[in-house]
């Protein structure tokens, strides 16, 4: 089963709120990713976790804070976001980080920042 | 030059038509190639990995031309349900970081 789950499906938050996005996979994958996708654009990589350690941060502002509590879970903590941060946030996982490892995406969280 | 380039379309075709999408990539060291399909407001889903010898899955055929740094996707007998955006994806060469390079996507609209 190639399933990555994400909660919540939709989130509306104010600029002063703190919220978290959650991602889970039970495929035994050792790499997990956060992407941001704006309308009519491809996904943009934000963070990569490999074996529960942060391996890539694509110069993401500190108002986005990732966390990997264990090999199946990935969180994205949000604080003091801006309206331009409104987007679809996608989680993905893959067996490893080699070039041949296929990434499987979750359904995403559609975030609106007011 | 963009690292992965696709014609954004839209491609508007009638049901039953054959349609081909092309994608070029700039780094000759790239090793892995994928086509993902993304429906409106949904996540990207893997359609096919692309192998050197080319591969076929039902109505879908993917080809790789390393000399020209060119990948193609052919869809035969188009169905209404094939309407989506098709993303050409290439791995970041010479790295085991998991980083992928996405094309801008090609939009297909199949009409009755």
The average pLDDT value of chain A, as a whole number, equals 95
User: What is the H/E order of chain A?
Assistant: EEEEEEEEEEE
Share in β-strands of chain B: over 45%
Beta-strand percentage range of chain A? over 45%
Q: How much helix, percentage-wise, in residues of chain B?
A: under 10%
The shape of chain B, in one word, is globular
Distance between the termini of chain A: 37 Å
Low-confidence stretches of chain A: none
Q: What gross morphology of chain A would you assign?
A: globular
Q: Distance N terminus to C terminus of chain B?
A: 37 Å
Our Rg estimate of chain A from Cα atoms comes to: 13 Å
Fraction of helical residues of chain A:
under 10%
Question: What is the total tally of β strands of chain B?
Answer: 11
Count interface residues per chain for the largest interface: A-B, 28 and 25 residues
Structure write-up:
The complex is a heterodimer of chains A (about 110) and B (about 110). The model of chain A has no long low-confidence stretch (mean pLDDT about 95). In chain A, a hairpin with a 2-residue loop joins strand 5 and strand 6. In chain A, strands 2, 4, 5, 6, 9, 10 and 11 form a seven-stranded mixed β-sheet that branches. In chain A, strands 1-3-8-7 form a four-stranded antiparallel β-sheet, with no helix packed on it. By secondary structure, chain A is mostly beta strands. Chain A has no helices and eleven strands. The radius of gyration of chain B is 14 Å and the shape is globular. Chain B has no helices and eleven strands. The mean pLDDT of chain B is about 95. Chain B is an all-beta fold and about 110 residues long. In chain B, the strands form two sheets. In chain B, strands 2, 4, 5, 9, 10 and 11 form a six-stranded mixed β-sheet that branches. Chains A and B meet through strand 5, strand 9 and strand 10 of A and strand 5 of B.
